[in-house]
Amino acid sequence: MKPSPARSTNPVYFLPKSVGIWLACGFLSMALLHLLCCSPRGAQEAVFTQVLQYADDTYSKFRSRGGGQRCDYSEGRWVWAPGHARRYNATVCDVKEAQDCLRNGRPDTGYLDWRWQPAGCRLPAFDPAAFLSAVRGKHVAFVGDSMSRNQAESLVCLLTAASPYRVVHRDPVRYKRQFMRWAFPTHDATVSVYWAPYLARATGKSENYSMPYNLVHLDALGDRWASDADTMDVVVLAANHWMLNPAVYHNGSEVLGAHGHPELNHTEIGYAAPLRQAYRMSLERLSSGRSRTVVLATFSPTHFENNRMDDPTACDKKEPYKEGEKELNSMEKELRRIVVEEAEAVARRNGPSGAVRFEVLDVTKLAAMRPDGHPGPYMNRDPFANGVPQKMPTDCLHFCLPGPVDTFNEILQQILTKRQ
Ligand SMILES: *[C@@H]1O[C@H](CO)[C@@H](O)[C@H](O)[C@H]1NC(C)=O
Ligand SMILES: *[C@@H]1O[C@H](CO)[C@@H](O)[C@H](O)[C@H]1NC(C)=O
Ligand SMILES: *[C@@H]1O[C@H](CO)[C@@H](O)[C@H](O)[C@H]1NC(C)=O
Ligand SMILES: *[C@@H]1O[C@H](CO)[C@@H](O)[C@H](O)[C@H]1NC(C)=O
């Protein structure tokens, strides 16, 4: 845990604002001069990052004196911060092997050296002790698709730095991880993940990958998470990706339509309406029962750059995108917007004094800018042990652990601990 700096050790507090800024500028220009004439490139970058960090810190201290303003973490950029994401050993905290990129032999580790810098404030690094204190006695549930599991496993790994966990439940089919629960006995806290890629009740492909499509019931919730809903104090919902898969949608016995499966001759209803309905139904359920915080995570885009899932180079970038280098496409924007709108709508319906707090964990932009953070071919162990084949399974959707998804939890922490 990082104690907040005592005032007496922080000279900036004793200076008028203008002097502090001039000092920062002076330091900056001296450091730049030094860099330009004398240092090797690696050292240059390190010094430069430290200078930027100092300037950022100084700036955010001035800003935070104004106080009270909520920070928008959704806009910003990734800045080089050596080691920022090297926080745990994913093998030790037993994440899904397909996301344990270091174990699987990914040779480049530069993707662990970036920190998200929001546009108008500083995002503090994850503080496991503070997070556990915030969820003491509580049940934190991640409900949704495999990105939801990716974030849950990141959280468990991050928390192990402060407290040991016990696995309370895991799927009998070990690789599936459709329902897992971890306990942190020191704080009487539990973290669960519920596989519910449509939030709604679904059978077919989402249960058995060799089936051609899904049958989704837009009048009923996924059974396992819905029956546990009354035990959940913090719920993080993330279910977008499967809405793009082929499915037939039902309301009771009535067929509402289908998406992506024209051979069945049902009306094509797209992905937007089912997504809205699934979120609306879920939020309705979570609006009653107990006082809690419901967090809606927005769409985390994929980076299959050439639209091929079996190409080992589909996501082989080594650095984040820079501002303006990559824009979201209209579908990605829409998937994000629907979730934001449904969060706003349910907050309005429940009113400001409601017992349930609704928040958006808006990760779309920060995730979109990290094409370098996916396992790619390193979803399998030592994929190039026998040379480089033309085709091999590649994951440009989930993030390596540790990796960019840890930032989702840094923001989740701010959401859970901020003043209300
Ligand atoms: C993580 O821990 C495992 C098991 O203890 C060890 O074999 C491995 O080298 C560690 N990985 C890293 C990246 O430190
Ligand atoms: C999965 O679906 C396939 C194709 O329909 C079927 O042959 C298989 O038995 C199913 N597996 C399970 C475990 O239900
Ligand atoms: C399902 O049918 C019921 C009864 O006709 C109707 O009230 C409801 O709006 C329908 N739901 C959807 C998602 O179409
Ligand atoms: C869909 O319509 C086509 C053309 O009318 C027909 O040949 C086909 O059998 C229909 N498929 C189903 C599953 O009803």
UniProtKB/TrEMBL annotation:
Keywords: Golgi apparatus, Membrane, Signal-anchor, Transferase, Transmembrane, Transmembrane helix. Residues 70-121 form the Trichome birefringence-like N-terminal domain. It holds the Pfam family PC-Esterase. GO terms for molecular function: xylan O-acetyltransferase activity. Residues 307-327 are annotated as: Disordered. GO terms for cellular component: Golgi membrane. Residues 123-414 form the Trichome birefringence-like C-terminal domain. The chain crosses the membrane at residues 12-36. It is a single-pass type II membrane protein. It is found in: Golgi apparatus membrane. Its main location: Golgi. Belongs to the PC-esterase family. TBL subfamily. PANTHER family: OS07G0255900 PROTEIN, PROTEIN TRICHOME BIREFRINGENCE-LIKE 9-RELATED. This is Protein ALTERED XYLOGLUCAN 4. It comes from Dichanthelium oligosanthes.
